[in-house]
Amino acid sequence: MKKFILAVGLLSLAGSALAASKSCEELKAEIAAKLDAKGISGYSLEIVDKGAAAGGKIVGKCEGGAKVIVYKK
Q: Which InterPro entries match (predicted)?
């Protein structure tokens, strides 16, 4: 049972690491597609260095967490 719990924990960590290492342009396109599908318009998505997200909401992380995608209405 302990091995099973450990395996699940490691798989979830590996999945998080893979998601965080996506290319910024790829992730930005996925987020834009989701927003467009929900009928949201008049927004901008900007790729910035981590910590430089003033004036917007962080909606994604990319390049291993070094950059973030910021949503502004």
A: DUF1161 (IPR010595)
Cα angle vertex 35, ends 48, 38, to 5°?
A: 165
63 with 18: CB under 8 angstroms?
no
Q: For residue 57, with 0-12 CB atoms within 10 Å meaning exposed, 13-18 middle and 19 or more buried, which class applies?
A: exposed
DSSP state of 41: -
Residue 43, CA atoms < 13 Å, CB-side half-sphere: 20
Q: Is the whole model's pTM more than 0.70, yes or no?
A: no
Range of the domain at 23: 2-72
How many domains is the chain partitioned into structurally?
1
